[in-house]
Write a structure and sequence with these properties.
By secondary structure, the protein is of the alpha/beta class. It is built from five helices and three strands.
Amino acid sequence: MTSRLACVRWMCSTSITTRKQQASSAKQTIQQPAASVCGPHARQGPQYLDESWINETVQLIPRMKVWIDKYYPGTKLAIGEWSWGGEKSMSGALAIADVLGICGREGVDMASYWTFPPVHTPAAQAFAMFTHYND
């Protein structure tokens, strides 16, 4: 038996320059932490209007699941690459923890984080908290 897999990217909708700055520095503007923390919700909530250039509701995972059920029943959902930047900040770590929880809650079959968070950063601690919650 073979399995089919629908794969999408899930990235922060701020500019690439902003994301690179977030990933390389703990210094952030006032807008960057808000974008990191609010971003995952913007992609999910049916009433949450994305505050980026998208400027509409996204509902990425629920929308993908509806399309899969309608056009390709039985296909698994993967997020082949996701990142919200800000790995050295608490807001980035909160976004990571939020995305991990959303993927679990929504039944995503596979998700791959883009790159590996630097050791001893808030982002690495978010992964550790999620993967070792009962240690």
